[in-house]
Amino acid sequence: MEQVRTSKKEAAIETLPSIYSLQLDELKTWLKENNEKAFRADQIFEWLYKQRVTSFEDMSNLSKSLRQLLADNFTITTLKTIIEQTSSDGTIKFLFELHDGYSIETVLMRHEYGNSVCVTTQVGCRIGCTFCASTLGGLKRNLEAGEIVAQVVKVQQALDQTDERVSSVVIMGIGEPFDNFNNMLSFLKIINHDQALNIGARHITVSTSGIVPKIYEFADQNMQINFAVSLHAPNTELRSRLMPINRAYKLPQLMEAIRYYVEKTGRRVSFEYGLFGNVNDQVEHAEELAKLVKGIKCHVNLIPVNYVPERDYVRTPKDQIFLFEKTLKNHGVNVTIRREQGSDIDAACGQLRAKERQEETR
Ligand code: SAH
Fold this sequence. Notes:
With 362 residues, the chain is an alpha/beta fold.
């Protein structure tokens, strides 16, 4: 019988923590504990985030022994590209493989104002939204902070070839970011740090399906990042039908948490509202939605449903989308219709993974 064996050393390396998970301060502390100078952390950050090397060996201004020490204790997470699909509008969708064989999606979107990366926070998702492909197969595991950072680094490395820069990040890929809260916060701090990727807080957006206690915690962090909530329904009965999370945290509780966030941070909130044909897309729904968000500093983003083969929602006709928008506008609600990107490349959350990795999502 033939057997492929991983040597002990390789197995050990696979399970080492990602160096991308560390804040600069944490790296300084670690260095001091290991009898190295704290300023080496600045050099390491420079190699990781400005030079974007993929091996400790390349960090040529560090001593050989320090390079070895780093390699014995950390890994520079490298994501293996399984699929890279480019859309006619320039959107690129990546399916990456993690060290344990699971796969995640990352999307690069090109806008007039810059390049935006959509990152995944979990392998799968346990929230169970009835229209979403990411939740098929449930939650496999949380991503480490460094595995989320690595997605942005990897896309930046691709853009380096044309001297372009990742200018904004949206946490809207696979997974519920507030269900992997601490790692998500570490990720935010790392990409925001000026010695790391230096992505401005106002150029970062996080979206949640509505994990109420975490919304309070998030508000108390008082970060200046953009905040979005997947609303999708104007009343609690309908929302429970679309999103089982609403049975645990009901709409009135959710709205209360959002009011708290807006008051605490002074920032506005974005509501994502997917239009699902004949389900939540009628004028009366728009009227009810306008009432629901009245008095809240907010913006409503209408998302025409992305077709998911495993889910049987249908698209709202264009005229009806415009009528929905107009109804909201007439009530003084700030509203836009999300421009579709990458619809020819399965760019909606979890679609590519669901198609390519059926063993993970069944
Ligand atoms: N779990 C987080 C982050 C995902 S963001 C959240 O729920 O907010 C991705 C957005 O796309 C969410 O608003 C999600 O509800 C929405 N979405 C998922 N599947 C969709 C589909 N098939 N059509 C339209 N929007 C969808």
